[in-house]
Structures are given as C-alpha cells and as structure tokens.
C-alpha cells in the first residue's frame, strides 16, 4: 500500500473506533434506527472493518489485533452495563470475535494479492 494512504487509513481506524464506541453507549431509545439488520450483523460488520483497518494501519501481528479488539469488545459490553436502556450481551462479543476473524481473513487475502502483484 502506498505510504500516502497510511495516514488516511490510520485516521479512518481511529474515527471508526470512536464512532463505534459512541454508537454503542448512546442510550438505545435515543440511538438512530439502522434499519432491519440484526445487531449481531452490525457487530460483525463493525469489528470486521476495525480489524481490517487496524491491520492496514499498523501492520501488527494478527494475534495482537485479536487481543486488542477483543478487549475493546469486552470494554464496550461492560460500558453498556452502566448505560441507561442498554445491557451487556456477551453474544455481541461472540459476533465481534467472528468479525475480527473475518477482517483478518480479508487482510490476509489482500497481502497475498499484494505480494503476487509485486512479483509480476
């Protein structure tokens, strides 16, 4: 990936992280409707994106991404237990973990394609 995009991707990661936390702790009765998608699908999508952006931004080892984002997922659920009209749902953490894995798979495919392109 060209270096000029690295800052943009880092800003996107931090923006997505902040947005996801705010969206997670806003009381549910004041949160905007997001359509008919299951909240587990939303968790999956959010953490897939966060995982991919984290890897693209910092190129850390995959297991560190799992540790950091899993910790963040647990932190969100603990925060929700103190938020009015919200409650912790540990199945959300499971959806987050599956999303993290999906983001890592997408990143792995991207890296392989990038290596193939560099070889040719």
The overall pLDDT, averaged over residues, is 92
Helix tally equals: 4
- Strand composition percent: under 5%
Helix/strand-derived category reads mainly alpha
C-alpha geometry = elongated
What is the strand tally? Answer: 0
Taking the sheet with the most strands, its summary is: none
What radius of gyration results from the CA coordinates? Answer: 16 Å
Order of helices and strands: HHHH
Low-confidence stretches: none
Number of domains: 1
Gap from first CA to last CA: 16 Å
Instruction: Give the proportion of residues in helices.
Output: over 70%
Protein name: VanZ family protein
Pfam family, one: VanZ
Keywords: Membrane, Transmembrane, Transmembrane helix
Task: Summarize the helices and strands and which ones pair or pack.
Elements lengths: L2 H23 L13 H20 L3 H19 L9 H30 L1
InterPro entries: VanZ-like (IPR006976)
Organism: Sulfurovum indicum
Protein name: VanZ family protein
Descriptive notes:
InterPro entries: VanZ-like. This is VanZ family protein. Keywords: Membrane, Transmembrane, Transmembrane helix. By secondary structure, this protein is mainly α. The protein has one domain. Helix 1 runs antiparallel to helix 2, helix 2 packs across helix 3 and helix 2 crosses helix 4. It is elongated. 22% of the residues are buried.
